[in-house]
Write the structure tokens for this entry.
Amino acid sequence: MLFAPRSSFTLALRVRSPQGESIGEVFSFLSGLYFRGKLAYARHFARPASAIRIITCDRGLVTPDLPVTLPELMSMSRGAIDPEHPPYRAPLERDAEHLAQQLDRNADVVLLGSIATGKYADVLHGAFGSRLKFPESFVGRGDMSRGGLLLRAVREDRELSYLPLAGAVRRGKRPARLVPERG
């Protein structure tokens, strides 16, 4: 829908413009609840907010405000998020190492992406080591459940508790479903 030449909704028009649209807005649209939850949570709780980064398949870590155009998105859509794929891994390692040097050495780095596989965690651990953490409540949850959990935490102004990634149990029994909110 976003890539269709006839799409006339605002986001599609902005992505097709020479200025593009922020990658945060585009990814929130494309992946729905999960990415929207991650971005809202990061913007609400990250200190400093300027340290928020998005993992891409070919550009490493980028800020949520990075403008992207339709040709750039089409190029990204052909990329692979695979730690064995150098066009993914090399820029991610480069940017993670750079960010690790910029941050206060005692600052935690919270991964809001998938923790069950190594596609993000194993690559990032090399740069951040014991500072790399993840929300404890992510274990056993799928994408949509994590997105809902993050959005709820923002609405409740309740930061989740984090565990160090190194040595943690990253796969587990599926927790109870989130109770739907009334209202």
About this structure: The longest strand covers residues 132-135. The CA atoms of residues 15 and 120 lie 27 Å apart. Helices lie at 10-16, 23-31, 33-45, 70-77, 86-102, 118-128, 143-155. The two ends are 31 Å apart (CA to CA).
